[in-house]
Write a structure and sequence with these properties.
By secondary structure, the chain is α+β, with helices and mostly antiparallel strands. The chain has helices at residues 5-15, 111-126, 159-162, 167-173, 178-197, 259-262, 271-287, 297-306, 318-327, 339-368, 380-400, 405-424, 428-437, 443-495, and strands spanning 31-33, 36-38, 73-81, 85-92, 97-104, 135-140, 146-150, 156-157, 200-201, 210-212, 218-220, 227-228. The chain has 3 domains: 5-337, Transferase(Phosphotransferase) domain 1 (Transferase(Phosphotransferase), domain 1), CATH 1.10.510.10; 353-438; 451-496. The longest helix is centred in the C-terminal third of the chain and has 53 residues, at 443-495. It is elongated and about 150 Å long.
Amino acid sequence: MEPGADELRERLAKTWASIPNWEALDPTASCRIGAYDATVAASPDRALLRSALMAAGAEQGPGAMAAGAPAGYEFLAELGRGGMGVVYRARQNSLSREVAVKLIRPDVASPAAESLFMAEAVATGLLSHPNIVQVHDVSRGPAGEPLLAMQLVGGTAWKWLLHPRNEQEKERASRLELADHLQILLSVCNAIAFAHSRGIVHRDLKPDNVMIGEFGEVLVMDWGLAVEVSEPRSSATALRHKSSLTGKFPEGTPAYMSPELALCLGGETGPRTDVYLLGAILCEVLTGSPPHRRETVREVLVSASLSEPVALPAETPREIREIVHRAMARKPEDRFATAGEFQEALRGFLRHRESVRLCDAAAARLKKGVIHGDPRTLDIRRVYFDYADIQSRFRQALELWPQNHEGRAGLKSAILALMEAAIAGGDLGLAEAQIAELAITDLERKSAAVRISQLQRQQSAQHARTRRLGVLLWGAVIIVLAGLAATPFVLLRMVK
């Protein structure tokens, strides 16, 4: 029996007890946990990085440059900072190129911080892929802190194309349609499928960790929470293994978390964990917000733990709705088995979009084209043509995608509509032809056949009466004509 919301609240309280005052966190704003700047822990929109990094220290103000650049590098500007590190745009003198240099923030420096910082370097260094940010160098900074030199990515985080903050971002975001965002997600799937092939799971996928370059490049960033999931554990990597996830320290982003992340079930971590996060990103693309949005962090985590089917806009196509719900299934075994399977389902949806478009247009015309009023006052030939054209559109949709259930139902409705129009116009032959288009198992086929058979008998009887009346009429005409022809002879005889 699955645990209920109340039981989950108790379990979460025990699991997350390692974070001081976690229940009091404002889920939408930055705050501090202990002396650690918890910009990443305060909100479900930001990563809950390692609680082991909660070390005392004074906060370094935003925008402050490092005391000195490491040998071989010249710092040019600060690009940003997070809960653990600060990133600079720098020049690598040996190759005369600009790179991104990441250093540990002095206020959170500790052996644990260094270990986790290096884990990101190891994970990223192991993954050479066009959709994964490249590592150029790992060395030491001026104070002996670890330094990570990476590919400098121009552009912006995907998050700001989904939720633009300024006019420049709004202008760029306005050029992106649903299909464009799905193509970005397909590129993310490429990176994640590659990582999985190397036995590595990201665990913190979200739009904020995906960079979109100035020329459309898509790069998955921030592999700091990545773990190895290979069984048995590979001896070729120094990356953390999922067996080290003891459940003591929560990791991830609550607004996107899968149940196993929210409940710190390290043993259940695997490729399907990332599949869930891919589904959560798709949910945000469709709805405009992450899947687990609640008033408090506790309720966010309860939502993640329960992972009930997310509410999607009413106009969301059924196919992509099913993709979201399957990817975000509560039980890992109910999700897509791999990122590749999820990706192929998305590709299928994009291939089927033209079929859906034809189907929607035909359905709108069918709804508009229903006959109202006296059929005798209508241009029946035009009605026949319209319904036949609607049928043709539904058939085109089914050729593109034979499993389009809406298209098949729409074609059936169009056939029945043309049949009714033919019956109203007295064209029972055309109506019979429409019945032949229906499947043998359709209940409408039998009832329609009975109706048309009755109408044909009535029509035959009417034709028979008309023929008899015609015979009588012609007989009367012949008699009249014969009488008229005989009249001169009668008159002549009377004269004589």
